[in-house]
Design goal:
This protein is α/β, with parallel strands linked by helices. About 50% of the residues lie in helices and about 20% in strands. Strands 1, 2, 3, 4, 5, 6, 7, 8, 9 and 10 form a ten-stranded mixed beta sheet that branches. Strand 2, helix 3 (about 45-60) and strand 3 (about 65-70) form a beta-alpha-beta unit. The protein starts with a helix and ends with a helix. The chain binds ligand 6CS. The site of ligand 6CS has 12 residues, from loops.
Length: about 350
């Protein structure tokens, strides 16, 4: 995998980057131009990459060229956990921090990894995630307490289970070695189905599947295609149990230290990109599924309502584990998410409500 070679140069590059950051300070300025660094958890061509390219285009245009954004795709700076640390330290101004890897830093965000909490209608979920609602406000406070600014929640498409057999019932997961991201709640989520969860960083997944260290993994279709997972897996199971949601984060000292009009520019671009990102992920996921079908020998399984209901029932005790892990503030976030999903579903049924 192309990522592995890059990962080897990581520690040298990190040291250099931190040294550079120490010299230049946050949002370093070279010859009057401000350099903003944007680190991705995904490779070039991904949803995060598309987002960052568009973010860069709009920021550079709106700042009249005064700000230059440099994008660091996955494999150039480190694992998701390391990228979050770089933002907390101010060595990087912006990064994506996916809840699946952020659970030990911001336990409350694991709410976005709970199964069957979101709607099975992605347009409803989009409204939940783009709104300036209680969910966003409570999560923002939780991020601030851990030295991060939450700028936005970005939906990257439905999570899809891959394996070498269909996963139609919780019993199909019995003894199934499932690769998960590294947040502790994910272990609970798959244990609830009887699986044997194995957390690991993204860069290690392809080899782990190839060497049969794990039996399957879960990611949106675009990622299954660009990370070549479909080469070593022959079944994609769609349960619509969870959208892959990532979070866009920044460094508090950097953002608070920007002039008010620059802070507004960042917030405006982020909120303009909400709809753009939703359209983009839908297109990329659709196109990549076609590519997988063309290139690979894969079976696509879509669970029906009765099958989804069985998984939903098995997943419910995990909500209590979440409340224990994320405490009172986490409980409030879960209640806010459930209420917002119900509200948006009602609005979808009857827009006059
Ligand atoms: O599975 C993972 O670890 C990763 N998946 C995606 C689609 N984005 C980032 C995350 O690290």
């Amino acid at each position: 995998m192309r990522i592995h070679a890059a990962a080897k140069t990581l520690s040298t590059f990190l040291s250099l980057l931190l040294l550079g950051a120490a010299l230049a300070g946050c949002g370093g300025s070279r010859a009057g131009r401000h350099e903003w660094r944007f680190a991705l958890e995904e490779i070039q061509g991904s949803v995060q990459d598309a987002y960052a390219q568009e973010f860069r285009r709009r920021i550079e245009e709106r700042s009249g060229g005064d700000v230059h954004v440099t994008i660091y795709p996955y494999g150039t700076l480190g694992t998701s956990a390391e990228l979050t640390e770089l933002v907390q330290q101010g060595a990087v101004e912006f990064a994506f921090a996916s809840p699946g890897h952020l659970g030990t830093v911001v336990p409350e965000v694991q709410v976005l990894s709970l199964h069957f909490v979101f709607s099975d209608d992605d347009t409803v979920n989009h409204e939940v995630l783009r709104g300036d609602n209680a969910l966003f406000r409570l999560l923002s406070q939780a991020y601030r307490r851990r030295g991060l600014v939450l700028l936005g929640l970005v939906d990257e498409g439905w999570m899809v289970w891959t394996g070498n057999r269909p996963l139609r019932r919780p019993a199909d997961f019995r003894g199934f070695k499932m690769r998960t991201m590294t947040s502790p709640l994910l272990v609970e989520a798959y244990r609830a189905y009887g699986a044997d969860p194995t957390p690991m960083p993204y860069a290690e997944v392809y080899s782990a599947l190839q060497l049969n260290m794990v039996d399957g993994q879960v990611n949106p279709v675009f990622a299954i295609e660009e990370m070549s997972f479909y080469e070593v897996q022959n079944t994609l199971t769609f349960a619509h149990h969870l959208p892959f949601v990532t979070t866009l984060v920044s460094n508090p000292a950097f953002l608070d230290g920007l002039p008010p009009e620059r802070q507004r520019m960042v917030r405006d671009v982020e909120s303009e990109l909400d709809d753009w990102a939703f359209d983009t992920e839908r297109r990329l996921n659709r196109e990549r599924l076609a590519t997988i079908r063309e290139k690979g020998d894969v079976q696509v399984v879509r669970l029906d309502e009765a099958q989804r209901a069985a998984f939903r029932r098995a997943s419910l005790p995990v909500r209590e584990r979440y409340r224990e892990m994320a405490g009172k503030s986490g409980g409030a976030v879960l209640d806010a998410l459930l209420a917002e999903v119900r509200r948006q579903e009602a609005l979808k049924r009857d827009p006059a409500e």
